[in-house]
Design a protein that fits this description.
Length: 244
């Protein structure tokens, strides 16, 4: 095992009679998906998921409860040196330590953990796969109450790939949408440019309630794009409940 950094050793010795938060970093690299809610200085806590792959790539998804952006996924890479995991993303660089076989904790660039380490911990979970999304779902809410029978059908094509079809059931006016999507950190993402070359927005399908799929855009300001696949004032957006 590599030598414990001297400055941290001194810190631990000085705090021996109390508690040493800077325990020796785990040397086993992270693998799989880790999820937690991280503090934000100037905003509400951010639900964060990071997937570490064996090839050195990583992808992070953050869910926001405020502002125009509801979700943001970034792909990048990760390395591990002396127990410190560096995640390099297009918009930022993050640092973690593997605190246990099933958890990582965010640190600063020197590997120092905040006193409230639990608030910066992400826990390993089983990622959702295509079979967790697959099924036929019917639109609920106001649109359904007004007689529009929108149907969402999700079929798996691979572990992290799906086909998504949204159509109107038995009526002439409604929505028509069909595209391939990818499962990224427990949500389906479809760049709408693949269905309409003039669009730059991303359709997102999430399930935060059992048997319910929510269709939206990653940026709230792009929500009107979901109406461009429909007629009669309809939209792809909304909650869809699994058909029984």
């Amino acid at each position: 095992m590599k030598r414990f950094p001297l400055f941290l050793t001194g810190l631990c010795m000085a705090a021996a009679l109390s508690a040493c938060h800077q325990s020796e970093p785990q040397q086993t690299p992270p693998q799989g998906m880790y999820v937690g809610t991280l503090p934000c200085k100037d905003c509400s806590p951010i639900r964060t998921a990071i997937t570490f792959r064996q090839d050195g790539s990583a992808i992070e998804t953050q869910l926001f409860s405020q502002g125009d952006v509801s979700s943001l996924s970034q792909g990048g890479g990760w390395t591990m040196d002396q127990g410190i995991v560096t995640v390099s993303l297009p918009l930022q660089t993050q640092y973690y330590r593997v605190s246990s076989p099933d958890a990582i904790v965010m640190t600063d660039s020197a590997g120092k953990i905040a006193a409230d380490a639990g608030a910066y911990t992400l826990t390993k979970v089983r990622p959702r796969v295509a079979s967790d999304f697959a099924g036929r779902y019917r639109l609920s809410g106001d649109a359904a109450a007004n007689g529009y029978a929108g149907v969402l059908t999700i079929a798996g094509t691979a572990q992290d790939g799906v086909t998504v079809d949204i159509s109107a059931d038995g009526i002439e006016e409604g929505c028509t949408f069909n595209a391939h999507g990818k499962i990224i950190n427990d949500q389906i993402e479809i760049p709408l440019q693949s269905a309409n070359p003039g669009m730059n927005s991303t359709l997102v399908i999430r399930s935060d309630v059992p048997d319910v799929m929510n269709v939206s855009t990653s940026n709230a300001g792009d929500s009107e794009d979901l109406a461009l696949f429909c007629s009669g004032g309809k939209t792809l957006a909304g909650d869809y409940v699994k058909a029984r």
